[in-house]
Amino acid sequence: MTSPAKAQRGQAQVSQRGQSMVELAMLLPILLLILLGIIDLGRVFNAYIVITNAAREGVRYGSLYPSDTSGIRARVIAEAQGSGIPLSSGNIQVSAETTPGDSKTVTVTFPFSAVSTLISTFWGGGDLQLQSRAVMVIQ
Questions:
Q1: d(CA 12, CA 35)
Q2: Residues 108 and 92 sit within 8 Å (Cβ to Cβ)
Q3: In which band, very low, low, confident or very high, does the pLDDT at 122 lie, cut at 50, 70 and 90?
Q4: Is 57:79 a contact under the CB 8 Å cutoff?
Q5: pLDDT of 33-90, one tens digit each?
Q6: How far, CA to CA in Å, does 113 sit from each of 18, 27, 44, 54?
Q7: What backbone phi and psi angles, to 5 degrees, belong to 46?
Q8: What number of other Cβ atoms are within 10 A of residue 135's Cβ?
């Protein structure tokens, strides 16, 4: 037979395990929300860095060949696609300057969509519009 002291210890252990399960069930959604937020924040920073590099690559090409607008757009798209960001020519604006000594500007806009709709509500829902601009003097 089991002594009453051992029976009470056994009940206490079962009770504590049940309490731990309830605490986990309460905290797990919050922890998952934080994890999704961290993942989305990392994806936003990555996308911003990619479009910034793409804009720089386009304006670098544009400073050497200022009248080749389609070539500038192609450079920007190729740079972004190499990093997994799908851009189209509608996401790219190129200034019209072609005179040496003037500044050439390339602006890249990218609609970023979050993994979680709950996370996207922090910036007003829908897509977050990332934008990067690069300026360089025409050679």
A1: 33
A2: yes
A3: confident
A4: yes
A5: 889 888 888 888 999 999 999 999 999 999 999 999 999 999 999 999 989 999 999 9
A6: 39, 26, 9, 19
A7: -60, -45
A8: 14
d(Cα 66, Cα 43) in Å, to the nearest integer? Answer: 32
Tokens 């890249």, residue located: 108
User: For residue 126, which phi and psi values (nearest 5 degrees)?
Assistant: 75, -155
DSSP, residue by residue, 40-81:
HHHHHHHHHHHHHHHHHHHHHHHHHSTT-HHHHHHHHHHHHH
**CB contact set of 50 (below 8 Å; sequence gap of 6+):** 79, 80, 83, 84, 85
For residue 46, give every residue at least 6 positions away whose Cβ sits within 8 Å of its Cβ, in sequence order, or none: 83
- Distance CA(65)–CA(60), nearest Å, equals 9
Give the integer Cα–Cα distance in Å for 131 and 110: 6
The token duo for 32 is: 């998952």
